[in-house]
Design goal:
Length: 246
């Protein structure tokens, strides 16, 4: 599963509008992949470290955007090292890239952007040669879109090409008319019990003509369609009208 962590107080405060989330989805979709989850985190070391400690313990492939600079409000590199239980160290390849870009001006401050958790791999930055880094299945990118997006594409095309264009899950649904969710809960539970690999969803709405519920499942095509047929039969048995989702 792919996940994303977008870091920055400026997003949570509304000073800047996040542009990463829709682009991450688009970059993954272009390769036949999908985003399983996403979070926006503040520039708070305790929060970042706690979240990374959790995600590093799972098998998810995670893109973390923001906070890898060298200013005092950039905490991601330090938090990643703490969450992984390793030391920070100047990465030899990162040092060469930063020195090649800035020469003597790399010191004493810019070189700090090449200090990564020990055991990291660099992610090339085609914009200004200041690399990001990968640690395990986590990939840490700058917050600037013009840098982050091509770097994310590089990671996907170089480390996860074998995952490209796998059969994607399907999303199938019906629209149930004039029913409340509470009236369909038993049917939903029965569907989950019978088709545990399919992910059920229920999206109620109100229209001028009455209540409507988009009821469906996501998952592998064969099981998702079998689960949908089960829901269709169950809704009809309960006496509610339904129509295919358009």
């Amino acid at each position: 599963m792919f996940g994303s962590l977008i870091i920055g107080d400026e997003i949570l405060s509304g000073k800047r509008q996040d542009k990463h989330f829709p682009q991450i989805i688009a970059i993954l979709k272009a390769r036949g992949l999908g985003l399983g989850w996403s979070m926006v985190l503040p520039d708070e070391p305790e929060v970042i470290t706690a979240v990374l400690s959790s995600t590093l313990a799972r098998d998810d492939i995670v893109f973390c955007l923001g906070g890898i600079g060298a200013t005092p409000d950039d905490h991601t590199r330090q938090c990643a090292a703490k969450a992984a239980g390793v030391e920070l160290a100047l990465h030899a390849e990162a040092r060469r890239e930063i020195e090649a870009r800035f020469g003597a001006e790399a010191y004493p401050k810019r070189i700090e952007m090449g200090v990564f958790p020990r055991g990291s791999r660099i992610i090339p930055n085609p914009y200004n040669r200041v690399p990001g880094f990968s640690y395990s299945r986590h990939h840490f990118l700058p917050g600037f879109p013009e840098m982050a997006w091509p770097m994310m594409e590089w990671v996907l095309d170089n480390e996860y090409r074998h995952l490209h264009n796998q059969t994607p899950p399907v999303d199938v649904a019906i629209v149930v008319k004039d029913a409340g969710e509470s009236q369909l809960i038993d049917l939903m539970n029965a569907c989950i019990a019978r088709f545990p690999a399919a992910k059920l969803f229920s999206l109620p709405s109100f229209t001028p003509t009455g209540r409507r519920i988009e009821l469906g499942v996501k998952g592998e095509a064969k099981q998702a369609n079998e689960a949908l047929a089960f829901l269709q039969k169950g809704v009809s048995a309960l006496g509610f009208a339904w129509e295919p989702r358009t």
